[in-house]
Design brief:
Bound molecules: adenosine monophosphate, glycine
CATH superfamily of the largest domain: ATP-grasp fold, B domain
Number of domains: 4
Number of strands: 22
Strand content: 25-35%
Shape: globular
Radius of gyration: 21 Å
Distance between the termini: 48 Å
CATH topology of the largest domain: D-amino Acid Aminotransferase, Chain A, domain 1
CATH architecture of the largest domain: 2-Layer Sandwich
Strand order of the largest sheet: 3-2-1-4-5
Helix content: 25-40%
């Protein structure tokens, strides 16, 4: 069997790793992949955005199944194109991926289907957003979101009116995010703790994954600018059984039913970013794919075959599949390039990777890495590696992942030292 994994981040290395764990006989192709995926199969030099190139690759390699990691090709319709070509693909249609591709669509959808989310308004003109903010329709801090995809940078939390008006100008008039900023969502700031909840769905059936928690801010104590995610953990106490049930019945079921009733059934991985507050869970965002770095801590806990689930997703039929999860704790600490999430250098030599994986239960998932002609591993992105460890209890998994971190070096690398500490506080409370 041949499987094509589209993408090049830590999420895609984890997906490839899990498939390899499931079945060593599977031939893996990653496009474009990274230095980590190169150890599990073949990297094909085709960009994740190049849908025609990927179609050509899937045809010429006669792949049996394609799994799409990132959102951009999904929003551009890669799954529709593959299906039209008769190729098996795990991922939602472009119409279904609007849940991630347009924040305005997602917010209006939630309102139509009674899914709890922050109070909001959508604006198509800068002056309308400005007059709403000036009129005090929202208190501060207020959250401004570019409607379209902006690689995790399109959400700006504004502390006062001056900052909010500046942001409207930058997004809507100056076009900082291009067409993604043609419309702007303004929404109420929610307080609480965040959690990530993902499910597999074939458009009607829902198979929940174990919950996890991401760390979006760049520095310890949730300080500094937002990033794609500086680390994550998953353990049996992230959310209580009651909270998980509530999220299933009040978020996931209405979302899946709602998409089907609107003529665009969601077949793939549906991700809800949630804010847990005094009044229960409210949705911050939907994603149409696996989270990164959530995948790095969730998939290692999946005892069942991922391939079987992905095949079910591609066929639009998950009946008979009952994924089993273990009770371990998994922690992933992201090692970032100097300067990230701002601009950063590439091509820094990484050492200590083999030593970091000597301890059983520790895996280093690659994100922004590449191999040079001599076989050295170099940095090639902002988030470079995800040092991931599993253990029976969260405290041990944290210790183990930082032991792994201590063995790795590249110039100027930075990482958070408090990944999963909230989980530890909760366990001790
Ligand atoms: P999003 O891409 O919509 O998940 O937003 C990125 C991050 O911004 C979230 O993970 C939150 O930390 C923060 N955020 C987004 N919306 C809100 C909100 N309404 N209230 C507070 N924080 C938010
Ligand atoms: N870790 C957040 C995301 O994947 O969007």
């Amino acid at each position: 069997m041949k499987v094509l994994v589209v993408g090049s981040g830590g999420r895609e290395h984890t997906i490839a790793w899990k498939i390899y764990q499931d079945r060593k006989d599977v031939e893996l192709i990653c496009a474009p992949g990274n230095a980590g995926t190169a150890r599990l199969g073949t990297n094909a030099p085709v960009s994740a955005q190049d849908i025609d190139g990927l179609l050509g690759l899937a045809r010429s390699e006669q792949v049996d199944l394609t799994m799409v990691g990132p959102e951009a090709p999904l929003v551009e319709g890669i799954a529709d194109r593959f299906r039209e070509a008769g190729l098996a693909v795990a991922g939602p249609s472009a119409k279904a991926a609007r849940l991630e591709g347009s924040k305005a669509f997602a917010k209006d959808f939630m309102q139509r289907h009674g899914i709890l989310t922050a109070r909001y308004r959508v604006f198509g003109q800068a002056f309308e957003a400005e007059s709403s903010l000036r009129a005090g329709e929202f208190s501060f801090p207020v959250v401004l979101k570019a409607d379209g995809l902006a690689a995790g940078k399109g959400v700006i939390i504004c502390q006062d009116l001056t900052q909010a008006l500046d942001t409207v100008d930058v997004v809507m008039r100056q076009g900082r995010f291009g067409a993604a900023g043609t419309r702007l969502v303004v929404e109420e700031f929610l307080k609480g703790e965040e959690a990530s909840f993902m499910v597999f769905t074939d458009g009607s059936r829902i198979l929940p994954m174990v919950p996890s928690q991401d760390h979006k801010a760049a520095y310890d104590g949730d300080q500094g600018p937002n990033t794609g995610g500086m680390g994550a953990y998953s353990c049996p106490t992230v959310l209580s059984e009651r909270q998980q049930q509530e999220i299933l019945t009040q978020v996931m079921e209405p979302a899946v039913r709602g998409m089907a009733s609107e003529g665009c059934p969601f077949q793939g991985i549906l991700y809800a970013g949630l804010m847990l507050g005094a009044h229960g869970a409210r949705v911050l965002e939907f994603n149409a794919r696996f989270g990164d770095p959530e995948t790095q801590v969730v998939l290692p806990r999946l005892k069942s075959s991922l391939i079987e689930i992905l095949q079910g997703l591609a066929a639009g039929d998950l009946s008979g599949i009952r994924p089993q999860w273990d009770d371990d704790s998994v922690v992933c600490v992201v090692l970032a390039a100097p300067g990230y999430p701002g601009s950063y250098p590439k091509g820094l030599k990484i050492s200590g990777l083999d030593m970091a994986e000597e301890e059983s239960g520790t895996i280093v998932f690659h994100a922004g890495t590449s191999l040079d002609d001599q076989g050295n591993t170099l940095t090639s992105g902002g988030r470079v590696l995800g040092v991931t460890a599993r253990a029976g209890i969260l405290g041990s998994a944290i210790l183990k992942s930082y032991e792994g971190v201590n063995k790795i070096h590249f110039e100027g690398m930075h990482y958070r030292r408090d990944i999963a500490s909230k989980g530890l506080d909760r366990a001790q409370a």
